[in-house]
Design a protein that fits this description.
Length: 161
């Protein structure tokens, strides 16, 4: 507990407090206990690639990163960056997606709300592959390519169904 009570001052603080602050006196000796290590998230690039569209000269750029702290539990996971969006493959979200896939009987679950599928001939599809360990899958298709470019990234955790 703090050694002194905090008061809310409107306007100026009382002169005695100002004198104590100027003198450098330590007014409060309370510090919150640490509940976890103070290690910061470390992002490591797994892969970055571009798929060019010869139709208009545009490029679809994808970046996959490994993170040491993700989600509510601050556990390792993978992020996929595309078109200014980020898909977080962290345990809680992956468990929820795996449950949805198991209800549908899918081995590869398309993350429709995390994908860019406005056009049939040009898209970025993010999926969860139910394997051991689970994988993040990215499919990128442009108008000038006949087949999409497919990349898979192992997730640094296991899920139980």
């Amino acid at each position: 507990m703090p050694s002194a009570h905090l008061a809310c001052f409107v306007g100026r603080p009382p002169p005695a407090l100002v004198i104590r602050l100027i003198a450098g006196e330590q007014l409060f000796r309370y510090s919150a206990p640490r509940t976890h290590s103070s290690m910061a998230n470390i992002k490591t690039l797994i892969e970055e690639f571009e798929v060019a569209d010869l139709e208009d000269g545009s490029k679809l750029r994808i970046r996959a990163e490994h993170n040491t702290e993700m989600g509510n539990r601050s556990v390792p996971g993978v992020q996929i960056h595309y078109l200014g969006y980020i898909v977080n493959y962290e345990p809680l979200a992956v468990e929820r997606w795996a449950y949805q896939a198991s209800k549908k009987g899918e081995q590869v679950h398309l993350l429709e709300d995390q994908s860019w599928t406005v056009h049939q001939d040009q898209f970025i599809k993010n999926s969860l592959v139910l394997s051991n360990p689970p994988k993040a899958r990215v499919e990128v298709k442009t108008r000038s390519r006949k087949q999409p470019v497919v990349k898979e990234y192992e997730l640094p955790f296991k899920i139980d169904l």
